[in-house]
Write a structure and sequence with these properties.
- By secondary structure, this protein is α/β, with parallel strands linked by helices.
- The protein has 12 helices and 8 strands.
- Strands 1, 2, 3, 4, 5, 6, 7 and 8 form an 8-stranded mixed beta sheet that branches.
- Helix 7 crosses helix 8, helix 7 crosses helix 10 and helix 11 packs parallel to helix 12.
- The chain is globular, with a radius of gyration of 21 Å.
- It starts with 9 loop residues before the first helix and ends with a strand.
- The relative contact order is 0.13.
- Bound molecules: S-adenosylmethionine.
- S-adenosylmethionine binds next to helix 2 and strand 2.
Length: 309
């Protein structure tokens, strides 16, 4: 299956990164390599390091980006582990960092991966198919309270309680094995007048389970705070999010980096060593909504950018 993914906010990301032709860049979410290739086209003597948890993305990019030779380095790992790779490579500073969070169209469109609530497949949802925890394990082994918490917190699903209860009752009879089995359970938890919407009602629960399986939110804010400090002066970080939970973490991390002094307001003098580290370039996020006609995924995309001081 071809790796199909249209990069969201492509021009905005490339101009937001302010690319220097001999700079060192990091794309934490390689995916189909669209943004990565855009960066590489601007580099004459620089380096792009890119990570992805999904080996399919790495394999695809090994071929797609091979013409850039030594200018590109691909790593199969979570982007949250990049700092130790930078240390190993003796790279102290970067000129730009990109995170285009979430899943790629390729992952969703490939039914076997189990990300889609419109295609029947085994419950999987692992970005990294070498990890053991899958959606099957979450759905069939987590306790009812834990499931409810995940569906409520990560999916912001108002029927979380009923859905968790229904899942637990159903799996008493037989394990829930497929995406569409789960979808029909979810639909049955909605009031009958809403059920005509169909599979779309499963969107929030699927998002929640996917976030849990891939541990998408834990450490994201901390990573942004740490990685931003590895930027050269004038270096930029661009982060694209697709739902409010991610966006909130990014916004909070950017705000913290921009804060000068974290002392209690009542203190007469500053005693902390927290200084303003970055300037926020996007006071309001740049929205992907105008791309919707060519790229449905852009609908909920938000791009935020900071620059290292
Ligand atoms: C939205 S796609 C990126 C698309 C890419 N910008 C392009 O132009 O094709 C997100 C990709 O990031 C990967 N990913 C998500 N979270 C990750 C993480 N914590 N570490 C590494 N890769 C991650 C996913 O596997 C997926 O391939």
């Amino acid at each position: 299956m071809d790796y199909k993914h249209i990069p969201v906010l492509y021009n905005e990301v490339l101009s937001g990164l302010n690319i220097k032709e001999n700079g060192i860049y990091f794309d934490g979410t390689l995916g189909g390599g669209g943004h990565s290739e855009g960066i590489l086209k601007h580099l004459t003597n620089g380096l792009l390091i890119a990570t992805d948890k999904d080996m399919t993305a790495i394999k695809n990019a090994q071929e797609k980006l091979s013409k850039y030779g030594e200018r590109v380095k691909l790593i199969h790992d979570d982007f949250k582990n990049i700092i130790s790779y930078l240390d190993d490579l003796d790279i102290k500073h970067l000129d730009g960092i990109l995170l285009d969070l979430g899943v790629s169209s390729h992952q969703i469109d490939n039914a076997n991966r189990g990300f889609s609530y419109t295609k029947d497949a085994p419950l999987d949802m692992r970005m990294d198919y070498f990890q053991t925890l899958s959606a099957f394990d979450v759905v069939n082994t987590y306790g009812q309270k834990q499931l409810e918490h995940i569906i409520l917190e990560y999916g912001e699903e108002r029927y979380a309680k009923y859905i968790a209860r229904k899942i637990c009752a159903a799996r008493e009879v037989a394990p829930i094995k497929t995406t569409l089995e789960l979808v029909s359970l979810i639909i049955s938890c909605y009031p009958s007048k809403e059920r005509y919407i169909g599979a779309g009602l499963a969107k929030r629960t699927f998002q929640a389970i996917r976030i849990e399986v891939n541990d998408e939110l834990r450490g994201l804010g901390e990573f942004i705070e740490k990685a931003a400090l590895r930027l050269n002066k004038g270096g930029r970080m661009c982060v694209i999010t697709f739902h409010s939970l991610e966006d909130r973490l990014v916004k909070r991390a950017f705000k913290y980096l921009e804060t000068d002094c974290i002392c209690d307001k009542k203190m007469p003098v500053c005693t902390c060593d927290k200084r303003k580290e970055v300037k926020i370039i996007t006071k309001k996020p740049i929205l992907g909504s105008k791309e919707i006609e060519i790229n449905k995924r852009a609908e909920s995309a938000k791009l935020r950018i900071i620059e290292r001081l």
